[in-house]
Amino acid sequence: MKRNLAYALIVMLIAVASCSFTNNSEKNFDNDDKDKLLLDLITYVLEKGHYEPKEINDDFSVSVFEDFIDVIDPTKRYFLQSDIDEFEQYKFQIDDQIKNTDITFFNVVYARLLERMEDAKGIYKEVLESPFDYTVNESIDIDYEKMPFADSKKDLKERWRKQLKYATLGTYDAKMMIGQQNAKTSKSDWSEDEDAVEDVIDDAKPMTSAEAEKSARESTGKTLDEFFDFVSDLQRKDWFVQYINTIVDEFDPHTFYFAPDDKEKFDVSMSGKFEGIGARLQKKPEGAKIVEIISGGPVWRDQRLEVGDEIIKVGQKGEPPVDIVGMRLDDAIKLIKGPEGTVVDLTVRKVDGSLDVISLTRDVVELEESFAKSANIIKENQKFGLINLPKFYVDFDDYSERNAATDVAKEVERLKEEGAEGLIIDLRDNGGGSLKTVVEMAGLFIKDGPIVQVQSSGKKKEVYDDKDERIQWDGPLVILVNELSASASEILAAAMQDYKRAVVIGSQQTFGKGTVQNVIPLDNIVRSNEHGDLGAIKLTTQKFYRINGGSTQLEGVKSDVVVPDKYSYIDLGERDQSNPLKWDKISPANYEIWDGYIDYEQTVANSSKRMSKNPQIDMIEENAKWLKAEQDETEISLNYKVYKAEEEKDKEKSDYFKTLSEYDSKLTFTSPRYEEELFTQDSVLREKRDRWHKNLAKDVYVEEAVNVLQDLKINNIKQGKLASVKG
User: Structure pTM?
Assistant: First the structure.
């Protein structure tokens, strides 16, 4: 594969920018200076490096103005119309401010936001002091986008009253019902937020309407107290990041500024691993509560900590412990995490109330749910394989470490050894990831030839080839996709479709993200810097194209066999994002389709015919339309009787659609042998796999994928025919 042209772009940026952004080391910078430096750096990188840079003019200014207000007050419960009128003076000036590294607009809006949030604290507490009357015929419209800002503080208080009444209504209903159900209902039957469930269950006795209403208000108050406690932890820099990203988002939906902490989280999500203790935490007034223990991590191996324990102090080996009660969760996590092999001392309040000091040696923790996993599928006397890939993960610092391509190759080999006669690659909900891994992965299924074309602005196209003539899997292949399959998922599905190497089953079209991003650390663009880590920008530098020349941008990949799912009528594709790049096409690459299938088109036709007659598919379509209708319903009654009647009607419909989860494909799913051996040491992994297999057995899409594999198997495959480049 040719060297990525984006690297050359980055080198050019760094070389040029080091002359432009030299800081005076003797100068003392305040917050505004750092913010101005960030704004200057980011707009420079956008102008010089973005695939399709936008002109920063009055139209751009208006978009930033409207979008920033929407980002920080989406439900219009803070600002008054008079605030917006005051901000209007900047509506056509933001472009000039950006060019002059002037952040007056941000400063004015931020200062007013803090003031209005303080007002809001008083408003919600005052509103919640009075009972809600659920016998009154009134309603709330939750289409906040169309809602105007309140004209006065009196109007704003009334808006809060309705929003709080609406927020409390569901809890009020639950508390009214719990007394009737306490004899037959346990916590496990409830699906609300954990804390809310505890509030409800603790009151598991018959309640009068007045008692239920009061208790529900108290519960809403507790939730808002926690929300504003979280907001109070946010610092000015956190809000400025929102402003920066409002500017950045005007270029395209995938260009994004990462503050230093966010960059670290992005790296963790892409690599699927981090150095720490292996526990997910939630901020509580009493400390950092353990809400999940990650299988295989130090906490899991040590077995002294459990879900519900609260960490209240953190000490590094040989140093006094630091009290983290009241500390920002991100700051507490920084103290808890650390390099592999180092020791952290945790002062913990156990679930039973006792205190204990537990020392743990930090280690590399792998997020198992991020990685590829496989299963055997048994149908009668035939065996097939399925590989689920959540994302195209990679370690940016070391490609030789675990990555999606090598992991999928291992799973393919394991499934072959266990006798698989056909293979399913499940890319549903896979949002993409590393371009390099998808090119290597596609090469597992063809002999050689082009996989994807990449276009940089003003440059000749690059063709990324599979140059390895080895083919790891030459048998029948099906790829499952849906509306959330994006980017690298679309590259793999498109390449296999263009070669006619695989049958693609899924949504009418996939997400439609046809752009390539590179992450550029901003520290690399300054000669000297006294502000610490400046973060990074994920910048759209290229577009990718199918080998047939068409872009997947906006249009995505159209499935060979189209089947509905719950997302079918919901707006969530690239075309529904803000400021997407346009669709276009370039010249096709030189390739020829794989002629290994005797009757590819007939196999697709047979599958489409089966699915069109499947009653399960009809119900899925009906469910998708109902979900869309529910989403579009924004007017909600605040009269309890009316609300209850609507809820009963919705529950009846929901119960009807629950039969979807009762479907039984009659297929048997088992783990590969290597994983079965791990179960003796890891009961959590066994439980996860059992749950996954149970869900797969109810999956009509997997069932049809197996049917397609059967159609393609043996009598429909020419031996020794492999996809390759022409000539």
Answer: 0.84
